[in-house]
Design a protein that fits this description.
mainly alpha, 4-stranded mixed beta sheet, two-stranded antiparallel ribbon, 8 strands, 63% helix, globular
Length: 533
């Protein structure tokens, strides 16, 4: 029989899902979302599931699992950005029951496991990245599946655990590459440190782990080997060695210091990193396995990710669910409590900060944007007032999701004129259909591909001298630049801001008239710094 608390939990979870679905109307944000949707679009219209493509070349930066899922959904809904966001929301919500199940497998009772799930769902990491067209939530699902397999292995179910581990590791590699083996496999290998030495021989557990690793490798290689044969030697080298070795040794993008991640951990764990406080002595027996698992799953992988040169804040997402069971046990035992006024103060500060940022970055915004920010501030103010009398985790989590979604939506809507490429993409698509010659002055990264539904890449200029010759040879063409370091004296056909830079389109004939001498033209079109990453 369903209890009142079970029904309330279901309603709250449905409310969280509906709140997250609000992000689906947001336009894709350059450069990651536009690039990944471009790859998925190329897969869709080509009908090629084996080798992803971008800008006329095989795309080796990411494996194909997310692109497969988006393409499969598009075959049902049609090609829409909102469909990809709905998929990402579903993927994010799938992590919630997995966190709850993991907590239970680690020895937490039902109350602690439920609290762990709400803590994860109400974190800034979840609320901020849930619905974003990126790979990290999908990797979270794969990592949690692998961790569950490892828990089964060390709890005496080696066969089922090996199968689950193989599924998590294999799909993890297909989701984001070999880095998933590090994140997912580390606590599984360190099982005796958090589970204790089992009564049966440890060798049987490690044999199951080896079988799981072998099964995951078979699953990943089932795609990688034929894809390498189809994509050619350069693509094969990239997916098997080049990308992983390059990111570890000297990343071609996002190369940052080993300490760069440290301030992002408490930020991604907001509001709990400041909204949980000590309450008193524990009631009942502690669960040390959850603490040791949290350490085994986060510390070694965090140190390894810090050594790898390429860094982005969202790379930490797959580590964070391991912390939720330990926090859930502390809340359930009474050692910790939710400090509601702190969470309310933080949620009040978020829309205020977004308002101030928009006032500086995009002063001319629709009144509705400010109304949305006022609604978010009202939620924070209510929590600030109510939190003095106590606050339960689920209510706080729903408030976090609501405020983050409102602030994120309002900010991106208010800033849309500075990043949306929809209008430029429509112009470029119409020109391409009319056989107007096009030339891109900097890296494309699929910027216009999805929004314009382009089926042919835009040629890229190899250098300034090429531009001068090209505009003379194609006076009816267009020259496109998405970096602020390119400029011409002629007024552009189209211009807009683009994330602090400038997107512009010129008629080639206009540029040709101002290129009096080759050296003079080269001086005007030579970028002062490299453009694109």
């Amino acid at each position: 029989m369903e209890t009142k608390s079970d029904s309330l939990a279901l309603y709250r979870m449905l409310a969280a899902a509906l709140l997250l679905l609000a992000v689906c109307w947001l336009p894709p944000v350059p450069i990651d979302e536009t690039r990944y949707l471009a790859v998925a679009w190329n897969m869709h219209w080509r009908g090629d599931w084996l080798v992803p493509w971008l800008d006329g070349m095989p795309y080796a930066d990411k494996p194909p699992l997310l692109f497969w899922l988006i393409d499969a959904l598009w075959r049902i809904t049609g090609v829409h950005a909102w469909a990809a966001r709905v998929l990402e929301v579903a993927i994010a919500l799938l992590t919630v029951p997995l966190v709850r199940r993991l907590a239970g497998e680690l020895g937490a009772d039902a109350t602690a496991a439920s609290l762990a799930a709400w803590l994860w769902l109400g974190s800034l990491a979840f609320a901020g990245y849930g619905g974003a067209v990126m790979f990290d939530m999908l990797l979270c699902v794969c990592v949690l599946v692998a961790w569950l397999g490892g828990a089964w292995i060390w709890c005496g179910r080696p066969r089922a655990g090996a199968a689950m581990l193989a599924l998590g590791l294999g799909l993890g590699v297909l989701a984001k590459g070999p880095v998933s083996l590090l994140v997912a496999g580390m606590p599984v290998v360190l099982g005796p440190l958090w589970r204790g030495v089992p009564s049966r021989p440890v060798g049987r557990r490690y044999l199951a782990i080896l079988l799981g690793l072998a099964g995951g490798a078979v699953l990943a290689l089932a795609w990688a080997v034929p894809a390498a044969m189809r994509g050619g030697p350069d693509y094969a080298n990239a997916i098997f060695l080049g990308q992983t070795a390059g990111r570890m040794a000297a990343s071609f993008a996002h190369d940052r210091s080993p300490w760069w991640y440290l301030p992002f951990v408490p930020v991604l764990l907001f509001p709990w990193s400041i909204g949980l406080g000590r309450a008193g002595p524990a009631r009942g027996q502690g669960v040390p396995a959850v603490d040791r698992f949290a350490l085994a799953a986060t510390v070694p992988a965090f140190l390894a990710l810090s050594v790898i040169s390429g860094k982005q804040a969202h790379y930490l997402l797959p580590l964070l669910p391991a912390l939720a069971p330990a926090a859930g046990v502390r809340l359930a035992s009474g050692r910790w409590r939710v400090v509601g006024w702190r969470i309310g103060l933080l949620l009040l500060a978020m829309p205020v900060g977004a308002w101030l940022a928009l006032a500086r970055l995009a002063p001319q915004v629709a009144p509705g944007v400010r109304l949305v920010l006022l609604a978010a501030a009202a939620i924070g103010a209510v929590l600030l007032w109510r939190g003095r009398r106590g606050l339960d985790v689920a209510t706080a989590a729903l408030a976090v999701i609501g405020v983050v979604v409102l602030v994120k939506g309002a900010f991106l809507a208010g800033y849309a004129a500075h990043y949306s490429v929809a209008e430029a993409s429509r112009m470029i698509a119409a020109a391409q259909r009319s056989d107007v010659p096009l030339l891109m002055l900097d890296r494309q990264n699929g910027l216009f591909t999805f929004a314009g539904r382009l089926t042919a890449p835009i040629p890229t200029a190899p250098g300034p001298r090429y531009v001068a010759a090209w505009v003379q040879a194609h006076p009816d063409g267009w020259v496109i630049a998405s970096g602020s370091d390119y400029d011409f004296a002629s007024p552009p056909l189209y211009r807009q801001p683009l994330l602090g830079r400038r997107l512009a389109i010129w008629r080639a004939a206009d540029i040709a008239r101002e290129t009096v001498a080759g050296s003079e033209a080269a001086g005007r079109t030579q970028p002062k710094v490299p453009v694109g990453t």
